[in-house]
């Protein structure tokens, strides 16, 4: 297992680690500033595939956290990178918003409703019965079923919202086909992030607030894993799992070098 002193590059989750309900978590801005000053390679990761990195950079800036868009890696970007490696210049029917649509366009994909190679399900607040029906029929017709992330619900001020994983389940029930999910906890999300910054697993750390996505994927990708208690995990939550992170910290503030 790596020691923190061996870590030269960092991957960090966003919600619950750097921000909570659009408010900066104490220490997050200072840690990112320190990484920038030290020229430490890093990426901010999110399973959210609604927004483009530019959108997310602006959202973080409004919270008092400065992260340039090239330092943000989303499940949409990871999905597009994976599909480009599988089928350069391929065709896809995409259900989602700007994050996944922009990423697929920039990866050279052609969007079509006519015999696509892939059906890609991303996050959106505007799922339509028509779009889901079309996805089901295309998958039944032979298109390969891909999803950006497995999260069944997402947060809102009013309470949980159904998210990508819930729509995946609906389509699976109707087709009998399971999607290939690229986002966390698939370690591919981390491997594509490592490739993006030219990092290696032996000297890279992953900071997250969830055992079932961030930490398990970090362990499977061979990273030094840091669980912070500012998200949804508590001590009882940690004990539910048969694996452990490399470190458990109160917040990212404890990673700032004095």
Automatic annotation (TrEMBL):
Example GO CC term: the record gives: cytoplasm
One function term, GO molecular function aspect: metal ion binding
Query: What's the domain of life for this entry?
Result: Bacteria
What cofactor requirement does the entry state? Mg(2+)
Please provide the record's keywords in A-Z order. Answer: Carbohydrate metabolism, Hydrolase, Magnesium, Metal-binding
Q: What InterPro entries does UniProt report for this protein, alphabetically?
A: HAD-like_sf, HAD-SF_hydro_IIA, HAD_sf
Query: What name appears for this protein in its UniProt entry?
Result: HAD family hydrolase
Organism in which the protein naturally occurs: Microbacterium sorbitolivorans
């Amino acid at each position: 297992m790596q020691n923190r002193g061996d870590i030269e590059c960092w991957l960090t989750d966003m919600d619950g680690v750097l921000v909570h309900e659009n408010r900066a978590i104490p220490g997050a801005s200072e840690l990112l500033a320190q990484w920038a000053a030290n020229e430490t390679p890093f990426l901010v990761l999110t399973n959210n595939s609604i927004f483009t990195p530019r959108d997310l950079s602006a959202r973080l800036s409004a919270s008092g956290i400065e992260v340039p868009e090239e330092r943000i890696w989303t499940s949409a970007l990871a999905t597009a990178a994976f599909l480009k490696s599988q089928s350069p210049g391929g065709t896809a029917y995409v259900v989602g918003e700007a994050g996944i649509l922009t990423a697929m366009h920039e990866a050279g994909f052609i969007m079509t409703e006519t015999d696509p190679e892939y059906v890609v399900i991303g996050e959106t607040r505007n799922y339509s019965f028509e779009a889901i029906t079309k996805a089901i029929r295309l998958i039944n017709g032979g298109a390969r079923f891909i999803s950006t992330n497995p999260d069944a619900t997402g947060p809102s001020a009013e309470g949980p919202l159904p998210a990508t994983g819930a729509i995946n389940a609906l389509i699976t029930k109707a087709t009998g086909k399971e999607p290939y999910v690229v986002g966390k906890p698939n370690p591919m999300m981390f491997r594509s992030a490592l490739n993006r910054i030219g990092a290696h697993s032996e000297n890279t750390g992953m900071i997250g607030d969830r055992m079932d996505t961030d930490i398990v994927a970090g362990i499977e990708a061979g990273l030094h894993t840091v669980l912070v208690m500012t998200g949804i995990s508590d001590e009882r939550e940690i004990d539910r799992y048969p694996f452990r992170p490399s470190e458990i910290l109160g917040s990212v503030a404890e990673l700032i070098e004095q």
